[in-house]
Amino acid sequence: MDWGTELWDQYDTIEKHTQSGLELVEKYVKFVKERTEIEQNYAKQLRNLSKKYNLKRSSKDEPECRFSSYQSFLDLLNEMNDYAGQRELIAENMMMSICIDLTKYLQELKQERKTYLMEAKKAQQSLESTYKQLDSSKKRFEREWREAERAAQYAEKTDQDINATKADVEKAKQQAHMRAHVAEECKNDYAAQLQKYNKEQNQFYFNDMPLIFNKLQDLDERRVRKLAQGYILFSDTEKHVMPIIGKCLEGITKAGTNVNERNDSMVVIEQSKSGFERPGDLEFEDYSQGINRASSDSSLGTPKGPMDLLGKNRSKNFWLFSKRSKLSPSTLPPFSTPPAPSPANGPPSPKFGRDPLSYCLKEINKTVKPRISSFRTLRRSKFTPERITPAVTEDFAHLPPEQRRKRLQQKLEEICKELQKEVDQSEALGKMKDVYEKNPQMGDPASLASQISQTTQNIERLRGELNKYETWLAEAGGRGDTLRYKTHTFNNNGAHDVHSPDGAHSDESTPDPSQAIYAEFDDDFEDEELTAPIGKCTAMYNFPGASEGTIAMQEGEVLAVVEEDKGDGWTRVRRNNGDEGYIPTSYVTISLNE
């Protein structure tokens, strides 16, 4: 069924329905535009939110950047930023595929509908014009027929009148005959107009208008079909980006699973461990032996050091979290300059066990005086109003031993990188000079003299700094093996490991009690923190491990990798029993954890 047959007399209804359909398209386009604005605002807010909490730091070496929870949070923000990008893509695709396309199609439909309505109006005007002509001829025929009837009646009356002359009778008859002839012509014209009107009316109602109505029906059906496609695109546009959005959400989930609380705890230890030893037992001050107060205080200054460092009252029990009490002048040790402590894991001193008092006096004179005040100031700054900041020195002596070693190692690595860069530049300038000498047309060798001289000076300067920092690192208790120093490569965590090539002491060695004044109250209660393995390796050849700091291995033996090769050809490994040492990288096949 079609409109032309079933709705031949519903022109106004069809006109109203098609207009309502076009208005629906306009309404849907407006709806989608507002939806795209919501998506764009949502994406903008998400981007601003990610930017707000993802502040760019001046350096990537911030302490918290090493925590897995912090890195996962940054990954979450990055995924959220990508998610916002997908929301923007949804808005853009909706605007392009729905709003712009439907708006253009709507204009075409409006123009087409206007054309069809103009054709219908024109056909209707033509039919109305024909009807007017028909009505005019009909009225004329009616008027002329009445005139003819009156003329005939007058002629008959005149003919019957005995007083009328023959001339009057003839004139009346001629007039009646003329009127009858005119009436007959009007009748014929009326008949012709009637026939013409009926023909046009038949054409109008059976051909012209049904054709126009059918065209409007087709237009409306195309509009409905296009609108339905717009509805589908509204869903498909978002479906197309759902896989990417799903990946963003999976990335957020992965960021959560990548958080490793144990590794974060290890990072805190690595960043904050000072390297000081725990305090030893206080010595008994036997006044009955005639030792005066002053000499006792001086001789036992070392055992009192931890109490003063922690701000404890001598009358109270020793505890990490007890309330701080003010130090009286009499309780302060007889020294005020910062100490230079021995290595955190240095070799034990057998003298201390035999003569602790004399050893303490010796240590006070040698090492304690340069450090205790600084460490006490460091601890006091957390609790007292007078925050005294230790002077920052080039050798990082103001830091605790462990942190000092790490900073020195970092500085060495920076110098090594800069030195390697200068060496490479020097080699390049040398090659360029050789090329210029062999081919003068390519350049003047003398033009490179200033650059070569400057590079040489830089290399000498960097080598001097390298030797200076190596010396400071050795003083701070860093790894002293020549093999490691010549390559200027250091352990990442900077820890003084009992199995590293420093060969400081073995598992059976007893820690030096004299180091008790350098106490660092960490959350862990072990002398050494074992670095988590980063992979495994399998030995391809036998290695005797005869040199200091190395470890023997047999072909086919599987070891845990603790530290990667830093470019010197040696890798740090660990056995299941805890033995650690360095092995040649070329002797093993390494597989790192992902």
From TrEMBL:
It holds the Pfam family SH3_1. Residues 327-356, 492-514 are annotated as: Disordered. Its main location: membrane. Residues 106-203 form a coiled coil. Residues 496-508 have a biased composition (Basic and acidic residues). It is found in: Cell membrane; Cytoplasm, Cell cortex; Cytoplasm, Cytoskeleton; Lysosome. Keywords: Cell membrane, Coiled coil, Cytoplasm, Cytoskeleton, Endocytosis, Lipid-binding, Lysosome, Membrane, SH3 domain. InterPro entries: AH/BAR_dom_sf, F_BAR_dom, FCH_dom, HR1_CIP4_FNBP1L, HR1_rho-bd, HR1_TOCA, SH3-like_dom_sf, SH3_domain. It comes from the Eukaryota. One of its GO terms (cellular component) is lysosome. SUPFAM superfamilies: BAR/IMD domain-like, SH3-domain. The keyword Coiled coil applies. Residues 331-350 have a biased composition (Pro residues). Residues 532-593 form the SH3 domain. Gene3D superfamilies: 6.10.140.470, Arfaptin homology (AH) domain/BAR domain, SH3 Domains. The keyword Transmembrane does not apply. GO terms for biological process: endocytosis; signal transduction. Residues 1-264 form the F-BAR domain. PANTHER family: CDC42-INTERACTING PROTEIN 4, FCH AND DOUBLE SH3 DOMAINS PROTEIN. Belongs to the FNBP1 family. This is Thyroid hormone receptor interactor 10a. It comes from Sparus aurata (Gilthead sea bream).
